[in-house]
Structure formats: C-alpha cells, structure tokens
Amino acid sequence: MGGTQITIPNPPPLPSHLPDNVLDLAVQIERKKLPDHVRESLRAFQRAGCYIAASMIFLRDNVLLQDELQLSHIKPRLLGHWGTCPGLILVWSHLNVLIRNHNLDMIYVIGPGHGAPAALASLWLEGSLERFYPGEYDRNATGLRNLITRFSVPGGFPSHINAETPGSIHEGGELGYALAVSFGAVMDNPDLIVTCVVGDGEAETGPTATAWHAIKYLDPKESGAVIPILHVNGFKISERTIFGCMDDKEIACLFSGYGYQVRIVEDLENIDDDLQSSLEWAVAEIKKIQKAAREDKPIVKPRWPMIVLRTPKGWTGPKKVEGQIIEGSFHSHQVPLPKAGSDEKQLQALDRWLSSYKISELLDGEGKPTEAISRGLPEPEKRLGQLKTTYDPYTPLKMIDWKQFGVEKGIDESCMKTAGKFLDKLFQENPKTLRLFSPDELESNKLNAILDHTQRDFQWDEYSRAHGGRVIEVLSEHNCQGFMQGYTLTGRTALFPSYESFLGIVHTMMVQYSKFVKIAREVPWRGDLASINYIETSTWARQEHNGFSHQNPSFIGAVLNLKAEAARVYLPPDANCFLSTVHHVMKSKNKTNLIIGSKQPTAVYLSPAEAAEHCRQGASIWHFASSPDPNSAGESVQDPDVVLVGIGVEVTFEVIKAAELLRSIAPALKIRVVNVTDLMILIEESKHPHALAKAKFIEMFTADRPVLFNYHGYPTELQGLLFGREKAERMDVEGYQEEGSTTTPFDMMLRNRCFISLLMGKYSKDSIGVAIPTPERSHRQL
Amino acid sequence: MGGTQITIPNPPPLPSHLPDNVLDLAVQIERKKLPDHVRESLRAFQRAGCYIAASMIFLRDNVLLQDELQLSHIKPRLLGHWGTCPGLILVWSHLNVLIRNHNLDMIYVIGPGHGAPAALASLWLEGSLERFYPGEYDRNATGLRNLITRFSVPGGFPSHINAETPGSIHEGGELGYALAVSFGAVMDNPDLIVTCVVGDGEAETGPTATAWHAIKYLDPKESGAVIPILHVNGFKISERTIFGCMDDKEIACLFSGYGYQVRIVEDLENIDDDLQSSLEWAVAEIKKIQKAAREDKPIVKPRWPMIVLRTPKGWTGPKKVEGQIIEGSFHSHQVPLPKAGSDEKQLQALDRWLSSYKISELLDGEGKPTEAISRGLPEPEKRLGQLKTTYDPYTPLKMIDWKQFGVEKGIDESCMKTAGKFLDKLFQENPKTLRLFSPDELESNKLNAILDHTQRDFQWDEYSRAHGGRVIEVLSEHNCQGFMQGYTLTGRTALFPSYESFLGIVHTMMVQYSKFVKIAREVPWRGDLASINYIETSTWARQEHNGFSHQNPSFIGAVLNLKAEAARVYLPPDANCFLSTVHHVMKSKNKTNLIIGSKQPTAVYLSPAEAAEHCRQGASIWHFASSPDPNSAGESVQDPDVVLVGIGVEVTFEVIKAAELLRSIAPALKIRVVNVTDLMILIEESKHPHALAKAKFIEMFTADRPVLFNYHGYPTELQGLLFGREKAERMDVEGYQEEGSTTTPFDMMLRNRCFISLLMGKYSKDSIGVAIPTPERSHRQL
C-alpha cells in the first residue's frame, strides 16, 4: 500500500483507444542535424547549467569540486526543486540559438517557477546576472560561488522565480497563469515572440486549460506570437500528471482541437537536433502566419505551432537512491539526495552526479564560461535576461482632459456610460498601448461607448475579426487577468471591467501579480509599470434581476490586504467623481486600482470641478446634504450631533435621504454628511500614504460624536480599517451582509440594513441628545 | 462600427484546416425514429415548457392568453433569460424518456443557471413544484398563474436556479463549476447518472476547461457516470462563443483528446430522434464501461460518451424584431422583446410567439397538463425534481474516538501527521462515504498516513488505478472544490487539505456554494448536509523554502464574510487541539469549516483531555504560560498588567516565549497568556453563535488592560472582528502583513512583526506600569 508505486522510470502512458490515424495530426518535420560546433556549444551550456543548478541546491563550499567533496560542503538545509531544471535549461540553450539565427526579440516565460535554479544558472552563464548585479554575481569564481552558496538563503535569490530574476515577467508561485501572461505580452508587440514552458502539473489547472484558446484572440498583423512548450515530464510533487498519462494520440488530438499544430519532441537520443528543428519549424510557421496577415491576406483560423516536450523528470540526475527510482519519477521533484549532508553514500552519489557534468571543462581558470558556451550566446541586449521589454518597458498613455466628458450636476447619469465616452476617446488617442479585457460584460456593464471607435478582436469569429480591435471579451476572468498582466508587464496599460461579484475569481491571481510588482519596486534596475486597473460595476446593490449569486463585494478585501504602497480602492459617489477617478488611475503607476461604481443612472451631486477636488481629498463634508450653518451661507454646522457617512453609490444615496428626512422630522438635530470616495483615507495614520492625519480625521468626523458609516462592502472590513481611529466605539458600520435574492433594490438595502429608516433608527435620544420621531414617509416618496 | 454585427442567425463557424478524416472521431449512430406517441409527448412537454418559461419573463396577468393580450398584462419590469431555455427544456423532456426506459436514478445539473424559467416550467409540468410547494404551485390554473406572475418578483422564485429549485444541487450563478460538481455527485453512487448541460459560455471558463478531465478519476466499478452535454448555441451575452466558432472537426478533436467519444447532435429537423438516440447511445456506452469494470474486467482508458448539442439560441422565440435577428443570436440571451410592455408592435410579436405554442391544447380545463404530457413522466420519485439524493441525502460518518490518536503533552508533534493517522482510521470506517480531494499536496502536507490503508484513484495511471481509492489528487483546486461540492450535496462527507496560500483560488466558488447552502437551510423540504471541510497547512509562517508567492492567508477572510450560521474558522494551537477540531468538523453539519495548522513538529501544550476542553470553549487562559497566582497553585494572576494572545500555531509560540522572557527580565509584570483556537469567539456578542458573551470576554481579556493579539492572518481582519469589543483602543494586533521571501521562519516572524522581541517592545512603562529592560537573549536561545 502507500502512494504511487513506480516500477520503471518515466513510465509510458497507457495506450488510448483512439484510431491510429489521428497520430497524423502530430506534425512530422524534416529533422536537421545540427553542425558540430552548435551542438557542442548547446551541450556545454546545458552541462554547465545543470551543474550550477544542482550545486545551488546542495553546496555551501567547494563549489567547483576542486577538493574532494565532504559532508561539510553541503548546505545545512537543502532547498530547491531539481526535477524541472534540466528541461528548462535545455530549452534556454536552444532559445539562444534561435534568437541568434533570427535576431529575435524573445521573452522566456517559465511556468514552473520553482525551477529558479535553472533560470539563475542560465542567467549567470549568459552574463545577465553580472549586468544587473555587478560585483555580486560576476562571471568568475567569486560570482559563481556567491550564486551557488547564497541560493535559497536569506539575502540570496529565492527558490522561485520572481522580479529579482532578470528577464522574468511572471511570479513563480501559484500555477496556471504562465500561458495567458505570455499571450498578453505579445499583444501589440508584433516583433516579439514569447516562448512559454508550461509544466504538465500546471497544465492540469483550469486557467491553463482555457488559456490554450488564447490564439483565437491574437491578430497576427498587429501582435507577436507565443511558442507554447508543454513540458511533459510525467510527475507532479508526488503523483503522475494527467498529461503524463496521455498518449501521443490523445495529446495530438486535444491540441489540434484547440487549434494548434502539435509537434511532439521525445527523441532523447537526438534531443538537440529534434528540439532545435522543431523550434525552427515553429518560427517558420509563425512567420508564415504573420506574413500573410501583414500583407492583408490573413489565413483564416491559422494553426499556430506548439511543442510537446517529453523528457524525464530530473533528467541527468541520480538514477536510483536507496532502491528508489529518482530520475524519471516524482522523487526528483525537489531534492533528489535529501541526506547528502549527513549520509556518506548519498554524498558519494552527489559527487558522482555533479562530477558527471565535468564542470572544469566548461569554466576557465578564473571560473568564467569558456568560449564553447559564450559563442552560443545572442548579443547582450537580445539575451533572455536582458531584453528591455522585460525590465523597463513602460510607455505612459497619452492622456486627455476628462472634464470635457463631465456631466451636469443635478441630473441622473450612469457612471459607466460617462466613463465609456471618456475611454472611447482615450482608446482613439492610444491605439497601440491600451487594451480592455472583459468576460463578455462590456455591453451589460454599459461601457459600450468604448465600441464606438474600436471593436472586439476575436479572430475565430468572422463578425468581430477586427484589425486593431482593442477589446477582448472572453468568458474567463483568468484569461482576462493573465492578458492584462502580460500586457502591463511589457509596458502598456490595460483595463478590466467586471461584474463586482465575479472579480474575486482572480483574487489570488491578482495577489500573485502584486507580489511580483512589490518586489519589482525594490529592484533598482526595473522601471515603472502602469497600474493594473479594475472597474467593478453591476454591484450587489443593483443585482435585483440576477439575485443572490451575483452579490459579492469581496474583491475590495483582496486589494485591501495588499501592501499600502500599491493598494487603492475607490468608491466614487457619482459620474463626475467616477470619471475623475478613471482618469487618475489610467495614468497612475505601479498600483492595483479598484474602482467601484454603478451602471444605473444615479444622482450627480458634484460638478466636474467639485468632483476633482473631492477626489483629490479622498473624502469631504457634503455641506449641501448636511444641516446648514446658520452663521455661514453654504457651509454646514460646525458642531454636528451626528455624522452620517456614505461610501459607495447606492449607500450614499440612502445617507443623503436619511439626512434629508431627519432634518425634516427632527430639525433640532445637527447632521453632518460625509462622503468617502478613497477608502484608504480611513486607515489609521501612517499605515497608508492616503490615510488622513489624525487632526484632519477629527476635523471631518469630529472627536467624539456618533458616526454612522453606510458602506458598500462588508462591515467587518471597514471596521478593520477604522480600528485605532479616535473613539472607535462611537462608530457604527452598516454594509453588505450576505443577504439577497432576486428582489428590488429597495429590498436589498433593507435586507442588508443599509436602508434609510434603519439608519435613522440607529440613534436614541441618549446617544445624540435629540429624539427622532418615527418617519412617516419612506425616502422613495421623497 | 459597434459590436458584433450578425447578419444571419446561428452563423456557422469558419471552417478549420484540420484534415477531413478527423470528422470520423465524431460518433455516428443508428438513429432510431421515435414512436409517434413518444414524439408527441416530447413535443407537448417542450411546447408547454417553452410557453411557461417565456410567459414567466413577460406576463403578470392573462397567463393562459384566454383574453386578448394587452400592454397591461405585461410585467412592469422584464427579468429573465430566454436564450438558453428552449435547449434546457428539450433536454429535460428527453431525460424523462430516458429515465422511464431504463428506470434510472438521474440528476440534471444545469450549468446555465440563469435558465431558471426552463427548470421551473419543467418542474411545474412534472408536479415537483406541487409536491414541495403544495397549495402554491399546484398543477392547476392557480398554480400556474402563481408561477408565471411571481417569477423574478420578490417572494417568488429568483431568476437563477438555487436551492429553492427542486432537483437542483448547484447554484446558478458564477459559471464554470457544473461539470466538476456533477462528477463529484456520481462518485460512490454507482447507480446514479448525472446529465450535465454545460453552456458554451461556461465552457470558456478555466474551471470547466479542466473539469472535462474528470473522467480520468472515475472508477466505473464503484461510481456512477456523467453525461456531459455541451450546449452550443453560439452566443454569450453579447458576443459569439469560442465553441460556437469551432467547427465539428475542431470539436471532435478536442473532446476526443480529453478522452471522450463525441456525439454531435445538430439535425434540427429531426432533433427528437437525434437527441433521444444519442442519449440512448450514451447510456449504452456507460453500461458497457460499468459492466466490464463491475465484472472485474475493466476497460483501460474507457472512452466515456459526451454529447454536443447545437441548437439556435432562443430557439422557437421571435425571429426578428426591429430589423435585429433575435433567434439564433445574442439578442435572445435575456428578454427578446424588451419593450413588450410599452410598444404595441412588440406586444403583438409576443402574442404571436406565445400563441405559437398553442398552450390551450396542452392544459385541460383546470389548467392541468394533459395526458400527452403526463404519460411521458417517470414515476414520481424518479422525476428530476424529486430524486431523494438531491434533497435529503445525508449519511453521517461513523465516527471514532479521536483521543486514542492524541499525543503526549510536552513533545513536539506535527498537527498533520497526527490528523493523518486519525483520518486513516476514519477512512477505514467509512469506505464509501468519505473522500479526500487535494491538489497533489497530500505527501507534501504530511497527511500521507491517509494512504496507509487507501490509495489514490487516478484511472488513467496504471500505478494508482486503485479500486476504492479514497484520494484524488489533481492539480486543480477548482476540480477539488467541485468534486467536494458534488459529493457533499449528495449526502457524503469530504475533506480538502491545501497549501494555505492556494486555497483562495476557490474563494468565490466556495462563496457560491455557501450561498446555495444558506438558502437550502431556509427551504423546509431540504435535509441536512455534511459541512465542507478545509485543512490549510504549509502556512506562510513555514514557507521559508518556497517564499513570498506561497504566503497568503486570505482564505480566512473568505470564510469570515459568510453568514455567521455557517462560518467556522479554527486555528488549533497544537496537535491535540487540531485532532479534536478535525473530529468535530467531520461530524458537523451545514457549515463551512476551515482549520489551519502546521505540518512541522510543534510543541504540544495540552493533553487530549485539556485540548478537548480548550476547543469546547474556543479560547482559554493558559495558566502554565502566564504569571503564577501566588495565592493559588496552578492558577495564574487574577489581575494581569497585560494580556498576550496567540491565535495560530507559530504566533502562539512567539507569545509563549515572549511571556517567558518577560517574566524572567521583568518579574514584577503580571502577564496573562490566552490562546484562541476558535476565531469566532472574538466577534461582538450576538453577531455569531460562538461569540463570547460580554462578561466572559472581560473575564478573559480584562476590562481595561492592554491586550496584544499575535494573529496568524491579516491584522485588519482581526481588527474588524474585535471592533465593538470593550475598549478596543487598548488592543494591538500583529499579524501577517504581506512581507516574505525564501528565508528563515525566524525572519518571517520578524518581517511581519510577530516576533517575540517586537511583541515585547510594544509596551512602555506608561502603558503597563512596569519598565521592561532590553532582552539579552533571543527566544531561539531559550
């Protein structure tokens, strides 16, 4: 009994019952024999790369094996993932040749991000670490020693690819997103090719399973291409993979069905010839498709190339240890010789393994890679670690004056319709650096003015196969998010509008991205990026037609938990504030911006100029809705009995109406109405750059009067922000509390206790000094 | 310009470049002509169903068209989704025949959950509404009137399928999960077939794209089967679908690659013959596969059947309105005649449309469905709305005494190893009603004792094709969650252990499920369900090897935002408490349980008996770690100067060590140490059933002394819970604050300010009355 019992390394999949002729779907190519000097250079890179990657996991000393290997040379704790490394290094070496042969701009997106040793070893070999970390990781014995001994040790490179890794545009953590990010990166980058390795573990994820469809949204005239390499090494951490158990017929069928031409590379004996010829084939197919499109004779449904690479997990590592198969099994996933630091037998096995690469032949006396390696490298600026697109690509948008799209104070207007017109113009001004990704909700969210001068870009659909279409609508939030990430990380700006309730689908994906950007800000050699920008509408407060399943404001919390430097949540109360906020975020940098608004026509409280000022401050006293100051025209009372605060469109409406009604039935009560549009101003001073200073907070919310917050999100979330503010016990928070159905907007407010009469009922004579009579009118009659 | 311009209804996909012979992959069957009386009955059901579904969207009066249709008969607000309804009703009618023919136990899972009118119309016709809502929706004119007029109106059925819908086991909201839920439902239900309609919109989601692989985890000996029907009607809300733009060759290829036999049903002229013959074929194929397995001659990689149903969106609805194509285009998605209540022309179009079904032929004088319809229905208990498995299926687990697995107080032990041994035994005792789903992390999470007496169940892998294997490891959290939902909703119990950081992948999916269960609790005719149970381990505090990307405790917040009746979050401080908690949740009902623990060996503070008591209370004063009461042996001080609170394994360790160090360097300081294992006890009284009463809270945390919480999750989250508790301003909260890397556990605590000396430094002489000298030793030396 027990876990998976593997009796042979790299066991072949059970054969399927598919007919033999489907194998014809797998592309056969004429395999060219590489010239000796190329093959030698490739092998030298691969051997050196594998040696360094393996050493990074094990060695804290004697990193070139110049002395006899001893237990004391082994790191006290062995950390790192070996299994995927040989395959990643193999691909890296071949991409070098490909880049040289075609003078390509190429990015290498590595799905198995725990294969950091492979990337770092390759980056050291090609001198990219030397460039970005001079004096630390130079191409000499000291630099190599630093790389190997500091890996996965505090202060050294971490075990997963992240923003500290030159050339990377993808956090190496949560699996599933490499492919969509790659497609996003090549959009509007016609000369870029991204090679994306997807591990067969990652390939089991839903996000990856649908990201294969992304070719259908790629216009070869305006965009570059992705070479996906599905790396089938057969195992996850401790179990075989789905794809490792699919035979060639199943794999050829599946990916042909997605729309690819599939090339299966599995000839281990001649892997260099096989892989390089296959990559050459892929580039030729890409050029063919691009040429046709760029000559305005586009191929309908072009079958883009992809590669399936079958190599053993932990290839070239130890074959067997203590009777257990290592190479070609899940035992090689992390540390193949876990007792190398304490067990002499394992130490010897490590010595044999590392010695097999003959590193002394590959580095010169100073520890610098020999000519056999360096002759295979592309020009520095084309190397995978040094393409500018990966580290300093930002092109700010050409902005326009938003006030010209402002609407008249006093009317009812939809925030989305107003923003749509502004964005329509912004798209016209930025035809190559701005895109919108949406899960088929643009019309429904009433942002359709965007389609006035651009179109959807869905290449498989003859009715929306628009050249230059700025809009992609695919019913996969994961694809939308992945495209946005890739597009943004390569220097452009994107927008992701969504139903409020479904943006949480990409909660953790957004967090992963934000982790990458947080570290990128700490890396001195990385430039700015546009922010990622979300618009949430069709909120719970107006989901009367779709009901309970469409009511979920939890994405606010996802953004709130990010670092304060990046986290921005805006709840503009009307169309002009919304417009001002959209304008602001589209030119902001390095943030995660969430803007929440209504698609329904709602009251416009502020003129464009007033909206600009309100948004600049993040919150303000709304004198027009408060009890007037008898001594100062246009101002409201200086010393309110109670402060009512609205945060969000519909709940602010309730606050204003509650104030109106209170004033009519209890005129003695002095009421102040405050609107908060920038949620971050509420956080305790010093905990966020937007946080109101204590004095300012007291000025707005008083020092001791009861404050009632009517909040769009979950009450406990707002309570968490207010904690630590002056006399929190005088504050009450109402908000969405997971009550809903297909019902009226009125009833939604009522069920979640955000409704006017419930707000009014919060206060007794004891708490505010004024008795409030029972209201006779509901605000619907006001 | 503008959106998608559709010039013909139901436009055919552009042809692919796949070779013609792949079309042979699409299964050809001998199509049987249905006997007239069967076809007539089918058509009667379909016509009546479509009539009622359409009327539900439009009519508030004159529901049988007995009078001339007038504007006043139209609902003031038109809500509902027509487009998917005809296809769903078509399938329903055919499943009735299939159930009768084979005496099947069948559940119908409807992915397009906004097609509630289709389900409700069918449920009324078959008498299932009458059974569960007697007197309200009876099969007579009054019942029908109620159904039609109250739909999507407060108090009536909502616009999306939910727990109020008889026969449903799936919330009709967020798309992507229908298929995985269906597979979960048939596991260990050998006689059950779930027919699952997946819309072509839903099919674009990642979760659905990988859920097709679920057949690979289905053992036909022990489990039932799913008949997936991909319903390709070509359009989402306002855009064509990916699958609508794939030709038959692409579709046949794709799903053959997944491992299915694909039957494409698209002969609209003879749709009844075509669909029924295809369903008969599917059942025959299923029986063939099951028979072989049950006779212990299992077919290797059986190719399970699936159906692709191509019908026009909004079929049988209006063809064209105001020059716009409706039937066969996205215009039929929701309300095809949006102005029917105000525009005479649209009203006439509605009249023509509704009249086309000739409802008067299908209902008798009392409004009861005629014999043509009723003769096609299965026996009541087999009807799709009345199968007991869908509404009252719960089989509680046979529980075992957990204390026999308790470990010795004082040693270091892994919570996961301890729980693994208990669960191993629990699986042995419950070989057919308990399953574990994991994204390939069982070994890594050190729960592998579970595999001592059971195995993984991965049918495509010859090495883990175990009969009766209780463990499914697939690297898709969405599949794990979907399987768990389906398994639980059909009466069994499941467990989903995960890396802490990646459980948030299913955040919104879990919320959708919880919405279903919330409503299910309010529906009198639904029985109990097991809770859904999550174990989070490999937490941020011990991700020193994987680093920043593996650090994300946000799933706590997802559970906290659920309704208090269901939300349960436990952070047991040691192995015995963990064990007690696992035991508790496995027998609990109707909850969403999240338990967080460590896989590393950590201190065992409490004996099994003490752990039981601590968990029963949810929190307690840990006298052994506090300053002793000089007057009472074994007790701690009654009047502490400060209260230190640990919530979570590693942060509690820091608290205990801080207390220890403080006591040694500032002996005058009276310290109380509290551990909270049930997070919910902290919430303000009356807001959660577990919340501590005010007096009890003060007894534990004092009325006014400084309280320092060292919390495993985000500080603002805990602050939100504590808000409203006595004198919140005396409370400080530390916790994970999104700082990390590949670094030591020590450094992780330091970076997130949860470390002992930082905890100690919180207090000045002013705040606690005792000066604390600078510590000379770190607790690592203690």
Automatic annotation (TrEMBL), chains A, B:
Residues 40-392 form the Xylulose 5-phosphate/Fructose 6-phosphate phosphoketolase N-terminal domain. Its cofactor is thiamine diphosphate. InterPro entries: THDP-binding (IPR029061), Transketo_C/PFOR_II (IPR009014), Xul5P/Fru6P_PKetolase (IPR005593), Xul5P/Fru6P_PKetolase_C (IPR018969), Xul5P/Fru6P_PKetolase_CS (IPR019790), Xul5P/Fru6P_PKetolase_N (IPR018970), Xul5P/Fru6P_PKetolase_ThDP_BS (IPR019789). It comes from the Eukaryota. One of its GO terms (biological process) is carbohydrate metabolic process. Residues 599-753 form the Xylulose 5-phosphate/Fructose 6-phosphate phosphoketolase C-terminal domain. The keyword Lyase applies. The keyword Transferase does not apply. PROSITE patterns: PHOSPHOKETOLASE_1, PHOSPHOKETOLASE_2. One of its GO terms (molecular function) is aldehyde-lyase activity. Keywords: Lyase, Thiamine pyrophosphate. Belongs to the XFP family. This is XFP N-terminal domain-containing protein. It comes from Neurospora tetraspora.
